[in-house]
Amino acid sequence: MTSSTPALSWPWHPVPGISNLRTLGGYSTPNGKTKACVFRSAAPALASGAALQKLGIAAVYDLRSQQEAASGGEGEELKKLLERLGIEYRLVPVFDDASWSPEAMATRWARTMRGDIVAGYRDILRAGATSSFRAVLRHILERPHEPLLLHCTAGKDRTGVLCAVLLALVGVEDEVIAEEYALTSVAMRSMLASLEAVLKKREVFAKVLRERGEAVRDEGIRNMLSSEPQTMRSLLRILKEEFGGAERYVRELCGFSEEEVRRIRENLVEREV
Known about the structure:
The chain is 53% helix and 10% strand. It is α/β, with parallel strands linked by helices and 273 residues long. The chain has one domain: Alpha-Beta Complex (Protein-Tyrosine Phosphatase, Chain A), CATH 3.90.190.10. A hairpin with a 2-residue loop joins strand 2 and strand 3. The longest helix has 26 residues, at 117-142. Residues 1-8 have low confidence and may be disordered. GO terms for molecular function: phosphoprotein phosphatase activity.
């Protein structure tokens, strides 16, 4: 980490029942510091409900597919608990069920296991623009005083790409965004063994790899679960070169007007006086 990166105690929010929980607040922009109105994490468990309420979370945006969220074990129970606590739960998939079918994901994961994470992130930018990304941006636009939590499974890929768009939109420096993304590697240390075990048990995943003459290897799984700064640097280049930068992406792909983008920026930044 460089001196531009916050200390390890910040931006983390250790909470029972939820991994990789941290805020996007407190990062420097040309107009001030980002507000602590957006939190990111891995998929929350039932044990995290009361803690999220204490953090002031008003809404949880789940970026997983319907099939993926349903297979998590606690999805419906967590939704009911959050609603009892006055926290809105919204399932806003980046990928639809067809794109998240076992076969489709095995194909995507095989590519990632070979070390090509960035291609998958390009897919996330394209798939999420008019669905999950738009929903989160709409919340920031219309409900600026109601903090939100966004998450996927590990809080690394889909969550990481959306958070990068938000930070780039308000002018956080690329290197700081890359370092913020890499903070997930700290959380992944405690999640690595369980995630590796889950991946190795997915027979359809192994079947697709076998058909290609490949195998589920520890090195490949670690490639999938990595969050290196260079990956985010590459994504930010794609955002600029292929999508015209964060502002153009939010306007043209997510469907917001120039005035709405201005207000989203304003709602994300605590201006200096």
